[in-house]
Amino acid sequence: MASGDPRRTSAAGKKSSDALAETNIASGSDDLGDTNLSPPGPVSTPKPAAARTPVAAAAPSGSKGVAGAKASNGGKDVASEADSKKPKKVTQVGDFRIEKKLGQGGMGTVFLATQVSLDRKVALKTLSPEFAKKQDFVKRFLREARSMARLQHPNVVQVYAADSAGGVNYAAIEFIDGRSMQGWMNELKQLDVGDALHVVLVCADALKHAHDQNMIHRDIKPDNILVTSKGVVKVADFGLAKALDEDVSMTQSGTGLGTPLYMAPEQARNAKHVDKRTDIYALGSTLYYFLTGKLPFTGENTLELIVAKEKGTFPHARKLNPQIPERLDLMIDKMLMKDPNHRYADCADIMRDLGGLGLANPALSFIESGGGTAVASAAVAAASTCA
User: Fold this and answer.
1) Which of 13, 247, 263 lies closest to 141, judged by CA?
2) The pLDDT of residue 123
3) Following DSSP, what letter does each residue of 225-239 receive, concatenated?
4) Among residues of the chain, what percentage have pLDDT more than 70?
5) DSSP-assigned beta bridge partners for residue 127
6) What secondary structure letter does DSSP report for 22?
7) Which of these, 306, 211, 231, 201, lies nearest to 264 by C-alpha position?
8) What is the mean pLDDT of residues 276-288?
9) Does the CA dihedral 87-89-92-98 come out positive or negative?
10) Integer CA distances (angstroms), 334 to 207, 220, 299, 346, in order
11) CA distances from 357 to 286, 305, 327, 383 (A)
12) Phi and psi at residue 337, to the nearest 5°
């Protein structure tokens, strides 16, 4: 077993942020001028310059270079033909004007865009040509994104639209001006008990709202927990992982699922074996990571990691961080039970037990808003009074 960077396994050599879902947060953004957003279809590779010009260069004396190329190419303008094969830069997709690239992930590219009709910023997630070629996948992607749009909760990233326009398949999502919790963990390395409970209680409240509508997240992890500049915690990418899970070719090949660092063992083995308790397990893994800076299970490769999860033996969080109360340690253990029947059955139970400790900070201590402190969370306050 190797501890290493919790966002990697040495065999896979990939960051977990390169799998499944992309983050809605600006990060060293490339300008749109460096990005070509092309509709799906066969990719035409332009010929090297040296291969495109010899006809014109070798035109007889007195001829007009390009005209000579036209004649030698059946009357077609070689330069114009070559230009037509270049990918065209897309600056508008439906009602959305693209401003700049925000990031790249397993599904495709995320852009900062403006919804013209409402004059608001959005994160526009577009499918890569590889996925766009699969019509069944496109249908699932759009279906799941539209299902996400039904979730109305202050701590869930809102989906505004999902459609196809000009050959580009996209989902327009609430733009979050802030960072992911993985970004904060990269800086802080570990959270104090109050902050960790604040984030997890808010996520549990958001998950309960989704579970009540028979929607499972499937990919809870620090990358998919976002924090606004004012300290509001929001869960991102509800349902989008399902489109990946249901792609048979990807499930069989093991790609697209990413390294299952936070996943429940039953989900890691078979992506179709999911229910509320798989989200609860992933939330428990996330809480463990927040409090210790380490993951409960590690492995040299994906298979070894899954086997370790199935064995269910891991160092108690309290052993790694003595500041963790014994009662909280036992709650984490229950969230991480290898048998789903022995875990918490509902997020309401988690909120009752974690909130009942009375240890959650009302606002995140590592966030400063314009007023000097982060905004307090209603979900945390409610959970803390239901002991």
Assistant:
1) 247
2) 94
3) EEEETT--EEE--TT
4) 68
5) 108
6) -
7) 306
8) 97
9) positive
10) 17, 17, 22, 12
11) 18, 32, 8, 10
12) -60, 135
Cα 311 from Cα 287, distance rounded (Å) = 20
Length of the chain, please? Answer: 387
Edge-to-edge strands, sheet with 120-127: 92-93, 96-104, 108-115, 120-127, 168-174, 159-165
Who wins on pLDDT, 21 or 317?
317
Question: Where are the strands (E) in 166-281, listed by range?
Answer: 168-174, 178-180, 225-228, 233-235
Q: How far apart are CA 37 and CA 89, in angstroms?
A: 6
Instruction: Bin 239: left if φ > 0, else alpha if -120 < ψ < 50, else beta.
Output: left
Q: Both tokens of residue 342?
A: 């022995």
Q: What is the pLDDT of residue 140?
A: 82
Residue of 256 and 190 predicted with greater confidence: 190
- pTM of the predicted structure, to 2 decimals: 0.74
Per the annotation, the verdict on 77 as an active-site residue is no
Catalytic residue among 195, 205, 219, 223: 219
Amino acid identity for residue 301 in this structure: N
Q: Rounded to an integer, what distance in angstroms lies between the CA atom of residue 108 and that of residue 257?
A: 14
Tens of pLDDT, residue by residue over 231-250, are 999 999 876 555 444 544 44
Lookup: tokens for 304? 């070894």
Are 298 and 1 within 8 A, CB to CB? yes
* Two structure tokens written together for 37: 């957003």
* Alpha carbon distance, N-terminus to C-terminus of the chain: 39
Look at 140-149, 220-229, 326-335 and tell me which has the smallest mean pLDDT.
Answer: 140-149
Give CA–CA dist 343/309, Å, rounded. Answer: 14
Domains and CATH numbers, the chain: 32-40+89-174 (3.30.200.20), 177-384 (1.10.510.10)
| Contact predicate 22/108, CB 8 Å | yes
